[in-house]
TrEMBL record:
Transmembrane regions listed in the UniProt entry: 239-259, 271-296
Topology term for the membrane: Multi-pass membrane protein
Subcellular location: Membrane
GO molecular function: glycosyltransferase activity
Domain Glycosyltransferase 2-like: 9-176
Any one Pfam family match given in the protein's UniProt record, by short name: Glycos_transf_2
Secretion signal, residue range per the UniProt entry: none
InterPro entries: Glyco_trans_2-like (IPR001173), Glycosyltransferase_2 (IPR050256), Nucleotide-diphossugar_trans (IPR029044)
Gene Ontology annotations for the cellular component aspect, listed alphabetically: plasma membrane
Species annotation: Intestinimonas butyriciproducens
Designated name of the protein: Glycosyltransferase
Assigned keywords, A-Z: Glycosyltransferase, Membrane, Transferase, Transmembrane, Transmembrane helix
Amino acid sequence: MTMCDTLYIVVPCYNEEEVLPETARRLGDKLRGLMAAGKISPKSRVLFVNDGSRDGTWGVISRLHAADPLFSGVDLSRNRGHQNALLAGLMTARDRCDMAVSMDADLQDDVDAVDAMLEKYSEGCDIVYGVRSSRKKDTFFKRVTAEGFYRVMNFLGAETVFNHADYRLMSRRALDGLAEFREVNLFLRGIVPMIGYIVGTVEYERGERFAGESKYPLKKMLSFAMEGITSLSTKPIRYITLLGFLIFLVSLLMLVYSIVRWAHGDTIVGWASLICSVWAIGGLILLSLGVIGEYIGKIYLETKARPRFLIREILEDGNGKAD
Ligand code: UDP
Ligand code: MG
């Protein structure tokens, strides 16, 4: 790392007016400290992305920017979700910085881990993952569901970094790589490992949300998990084939068994077995169609190639661009 590498900290914000002043204070202190130590260039910025908030988030960002050019902002045309907002921030930062750190607005990620990330960057890493060393502060429910999710992802062969959310450093080269991935169904945690280059990890303790409520209620979390699985792995379709084959085998065995019994003059009667198997198979067929439909829906959306975000306004001081 040369003395003048520019760092952008990208923070997606959705209805975060309560936390933003504190987030800005801590990130501002961090950047100023790093600048004073000569570790990053004075062109480094905190880039807040307003993801179509319904509260005064954009107003807070504008005021922060007016008070200190260290803070810049991107205002999206509407709410596009965490992943798209993050992408919008990273793509905006791409031609302005040498490296970008993405983090949530709620201060759950330890800001001090940035130092360790920069250290790894200076050792040549292109991507440095922030990995939670413990989830003590998360609710029991969140811990169990998150754990289950990573296990399912691994089982399905999708490469994700265990206990890593979207707190990571990416070099300019890695950001350029990310720009090449044009999928509309965006699941960054799955895409970033596909970029490759030199990778490192940094451990940190994940704290509690500083203020406000989680923007990921159960329903959103489930659809996020579904998104992750279906956009990274086609194994569920293969398991359906396997399931169909197994059921066919079982039915063959039952057929042979009934014929043998019949040959011995003992015809099997049974309404219950019949209706149960019809319903069971019917259920499985619908389930399978649903899974396949999920993929077809993905194909449908991908072929449309709609824009993933639209930017309404960028707030930055004139000389924000890196050369
Ligand atoms: N977020 C966003 N758009 C959304 C929902 C969330 O930009 O539609 C941001 C949010 O402001 C926060 C980050 O994504 O910075 C993570 O959200 P949150 O902390 O609520 O999720 P949790 O930590 O509970 O999983
Ligand atoms: Mg959070």
